Amino acid sequence: MHVAEIWRYPVKSMVGGTVPQAELTTLGIAGDRHWAVRSREIGGIRGAKKLGSLMLFAAEFAGGTRVMITLPDGSKVHSDDADVDARISAALGHDVTLESLPADNNLEHFRRGPSSIDDPMTELRAVFGREPDEPLPDFSAFPPEVVEFESPPGAHYDCWPLMVMTTSALRALADALPGTNVDVRRFRPSLVVDTDLAGAEGHPEFSWTGRTASIGNGGARVEFLKPCPRCVMTTREVHGGIPADKAVLRHIVRDLDQNLGVYARITSPGVIRAGDELRFDS
């Protein structure tokens, strides 16, 4: 198996892009989700689970940690522009500020904002996009600190440093949902692993839980955790002409035990490149 794509998202919940190589640190892909938006209306760092239109924005690095953000109308704004907050807020229809990861790992930056819905179960169902007759996911897949914090302190990703998908999983989705656009951007993986030469079908990554692997020759090693429970973000309209579609989440909940892709953490940092071999340790 080989790494087909490495994805990096400069701003949490905005569309990112592929990179030819990346440094894996214990906190994930260097530069990934360096920025996020904080709601001035409901408080806390917020992503597209709450502010769905964030997925209509795209971001790319423009030197160092500076980012250029493409707004839904195609216009662009940079993270150091004086009007960046006003322009993002206007395009989003929600008052926000763009914030970078704090250099001092200030815990208050990551603390979860107040609930926007009085009933906790109603809020969970909205976040996970579940229909009234559908179950909520297995919350043991998530680290315990996300109860208190919007993301694990030190990072802006939702739960774990990496979310890994396979080419066979994307093919399986296309076969199961012929009327749905299953562009990879809808699912926001960190890595896409090419499983074609291995002859894999369906979703082989579901069986990787507990296994460790080396990637390339730069010393990087990862441990695969539980499959990734999916939420309302998979149903959103996405920058680049990907329409809103609830069918994909219905398929994931009904036929895939609510999961798509697998979480992973980095056990040994190193540089990885597109095309690198992924080798299981056992």
Condensed summary:
It is built from five helices and 17 strands. The chain has helices spanning 84-92, 107-110, 120-128, 167-176, 247-255; strands spanning 2-8, 17-18, 21-25, 28-29, 35-39, 45-46, 58-61, 67-70, 76-78, 96-100, 162-166, 191-194, 212-215, 220-229, 259-268, 270-273, 278-280.
Query: Main sheet?
Result: 8 strands, mixed
Report the structural category.
Answer: alpha+beta
Compute the number of structural domains.
1
Shape: globular
Unreliable parts? none
Topology, number of strands:
17
Largest sheet, order of strands side by side? 2-1-12-11-15-14-13-17
CATH architecture: Beta Barrel
Helix content: 10-25%
The CATH topology is given as M1 Pyruvate Kinase, Domain 3
Name the CATH homologous superfamily. PK beta-barrel domain-like
Separation of the first and last Cα atoms: 14 Å
Protein model, in words:
The longest helix has 10 residues, at 167-176. A hairpin with a 5-residue loop joins strand 7 (58-61) and strand 8. This protein has one domain: M1 Pyruvate Kinase, Domain 3 (Beta Barrel), CATH 2.40.33.20. Helices cover 15% and strands 28% of the residues. It has an eight-stranded mixed sheet with strand order 2-1-12-11-15-14-13-17. A three-stranded antiparallel sheet has the order 4-3-16, with no helix packed on it. By secondary structure, the chain is α+β, with helices and mostly antiparallel strands. It contains five helices and 17 strands.
